[in-house]
Amino acid sequence: MSPIEPLKHFSHQLNSPEKKFASHNIWQRLHIDLPLLAGIVLLTGLGLVILYSAGNQSPGMMARQLARLGLAFMAMFIVAQIPPAKLRLWAPWLYGVGLSLLIAVLVIGTIGKGARRWLDLGLFRFQPSEIMKLAIPLFLAWYYQDKPLPPSKKCLLIGCIALLVPVLLTAKQPDLGTALMLVTAGVCVLFLAGMQWWIIIGLGALATLFAPILWHFMHDYQRQRVLTFLYPERDPLGTGYHIIQSKIAIGSGGLFGKGWLEGTQAHLHFLPEHATDFIFGVTGEEFGLFGGLVLLAVYLFIVGRGLYISSQAQDTFTRLLAGSLSLMFFFSIFINIGMVTGILPVVGLPLPLVSYGGTSMVTLLAGFGILMSVNTHRKLLAR
Amino acid sequence: MGGVVLFLSLCLFARLVYLQIIEHEHYQTLSKKNQLAFLPIPPKRGLIYDRNGVLIAQNMPVFTLELIPSQIANVDETITELQKLVDISPHELAVFQRLRKQTRRYDPVPLKLKLENSEVAKFYVNQFRFPGVFVQAQLIRYYPLGPAMANVLGYVGRINAYDLENIDQTQYVASNYIGKVGIEKYYERQLHGRVGYQQVETDASGQIVRVLERTQPKAGEDLTLTIDSNLQLAAQNALGDKRGAIIAINPNNGEILAMLSNPGYNSNLFVEGMSSLEYKALQDSPDQPLFNRALRGQYPLASTIKPFMALEGLLSKTITANDQIFDPGWYSVKHSSHKYRDWRKGGHGWVDVHKAIVVSCDTFFYDLASNMGIDKIDDILQKFGFGHATQIDMGEELAGLVPTPDWKKQHQGTPWYPGDTVISGIGQGYMLTTPLQLANATAILAKQGQGYQPHLLLKTTPADGKPVQQQPLALQKLNIPHRDWQTVIDAMVGVIKSPVGTGYRFGKTAPYSVAAKTGTAQLVSESSRAASDNVPTRLRDNSMFIAFAPVNKPQIAIAVVVENDPSAANVARKVMDQYFAHQSTGKPTA
Fold first, then answer.
1. Do residues B251 and B150 share a domain?
2. What is the ipTM of this complex?
3. CA-CA-CA-CA torsion for A208, A212, A213, A218, nearest 10 degrees?
4. Which domain holds residue B200?
5. Of the partner residues B2, B27, B203, the one whose CB lies closest to the CB of residue A269
6. Same domain? B124 vs B236
7. Residues on chain A touching B1 (C-beta within 8 angstroms)
8. In terms of domains, do B147 and B129 share one?
9. What pLDDT digit, counting tens, does each position of B152-188 carry?
């Protein structure tokens, strides 16, 4: 898409007689959904406040996080300009490129922390599995847009295969957290496409049945994580340490927390990964139940707005796309907080837009860009 | 869809309420426990000085490499890795393995006691690779005089399970060492001091972030002993490689000037730790270096009993100073053909009590014993402190033995025969004395009945206070007429001065006046001695010697026992020479 296109709309608007709506429609012309933007800005603001404390007030860390946020917001604005029709056109190609990159990463990827996840592009490294986070919802929404819904068994099978291939490739890296997110994204599309509850439950049961086989293929550290989730006190100084310490951090926060920069669990390094995956522990410790609920409320507002956009979508493709992106966002929050509070096993997933670092932030805001595009172009098309 | 989102959000909410409201107190406690620690600070152990201010037990700063086994996945592998940085000898490894068995898993075990500075630096650079391994700066005990003082000072050793049962554990939480024997054990309470505490904030790796509160430890009290280390060293030199014991007492106050058990042992080895093999070698040595002969060696009195016998004879008026008997070289009890032989074939002829002591006539004392009876003998011996512990401030001593007919019936199952009384007269038979008891009795004799409680502590000096002098404790004075003391003491001077005296050869050149008595304890009977000229070394006679000097104003009383060797008098002379050489210059001789 050419960048001139929105400007054309803009000039058209200026020349229109409905000038009293101009100010209202500036955001529209920029393809920005104001409530969603407000929610995201508020969330990133809160996130920076928390990170400042969690990162031990490191200015370097804040600078890097701000740079990443800038990049992510840019991605969001750019993606928002792409009309859904173009996205629909690109969806299968993006999926194909993502899949190729995933295979490439297995062959020539860079190893970090014992996993082969990254492609080194000279200037920076990136995780192809991140592309898949967008490519899977896009591809599945594209696939089901012209199929009779609820999908037939054949369509369901094809959808499942299209989902499982990148999931298995990602799990092989191994990156259990992202693989889980990809499954979530895919299942959300299938669900929104009208797949019956019993099939989801049936698949879940099947997965449980195959758990011992899965166990066999797991890496040692993944097995440890499962065991640790089941019995955190099994090895209090080893792998159970994370969960125990994060529960202490959150629990000791109480109703209003120990105060900003006053959390002992994080600042004395009892809570591991306190700036990244376990940053919700810092939130709970320093701002208490109150702070946690505020954060949760902002998250729910964003998710709610996303679901609203999905409900207002005018065709199946955009409805499935917007809905699954919103739900994926929610599930990444749910899984992270669930893990940090000890009701879910530890999978390496950041708290979206609050945790330090990650390519995931760019992907996430690009996803919001899609949501905005869906919403703003809808009205434009309606005119 | 919104319903699913809402439901799962409520789950998170419920979980947060559970953690932050319902279980809040529990987790707050855990958080505080994480963050705050009470760290005990060990008190500095009190130093020990001799009477001249010479430091005889000091604290040496060392860097010790310690392992906490419970924090280490593979101890053997860790040690192999450590050996690349730090020189660890097989000896140190053996000591470590032994200590490890005796230490609880979560307590530190020293691997190398004294690290070189370069080793400390090398380790610190690599510390991140060794979780559960630490360098600990600590003070360890060092005994500069080693074996010469071992039987007095004893030693400190690592606290073991047995020690823990007998101490106030809170006072020892930061201490690694405790007095095991000797002065170190007896005065443990004074030497140890009181533990201090600091409340600190720590981070997850246990590093102290800041100190919140601090209660200083109270250092142990410094002790000054009555021992004169020069005299102690002279005693050690005099004994050389012979086995035996020497005790020198100031008869005017009971202060022990020297107390040696020879051979000694290097007490520093107990501080630094020994392998099982080394310890066994020390324990099984035929010379028994760990056996404190001065307090626990029990020997027959032999002829050193004679002055005390004579005193009782005079006191009970069994004899007078002028009574004489004829000594044909043997003695026999009425109605018995058994001959008790004098040490001198052919006898000493006409003998009075003076001559009997000077020449150490056996026949005279056979006769005296027989006439007095065992009850009177026991009585005088007990008055001089034989047969019961002297209560010296060491707590290891044995009581010796003053046998009574009742004792014999109980322990031997046979009645008391008249012959038992006869040989008791020359200090053979059942009666036993420790060198300390013998020295103490000599001191009482020197002061003509005024004894003092023998003791090793001269003064204590608290870390922040004035020294406290130990006051001499007078024993009950023996009620014996001056005339009788004079008779016996004159005779003891004769032992040295008279050309026929048994101590003449050793004492005639002494530049100070001496009263003394020799003794020879037979370990095998006369008959078996006759059968073989070549008595095995360990069955040769023990020699004994008691003396005090100067005669008129006694300053030193001494008892010497030399096992299987006749040199006791010689040894005593060297020690006394050292004492008076020191006295005349007024300064400790180097």
1. no
2. 0.87
3. 100
4. 38-225
5. B203
6. no
7. 191-192, 307, 323, 327
8. yes
9. 999 999 888 788 888 888 888 888 899 999 999 999 9
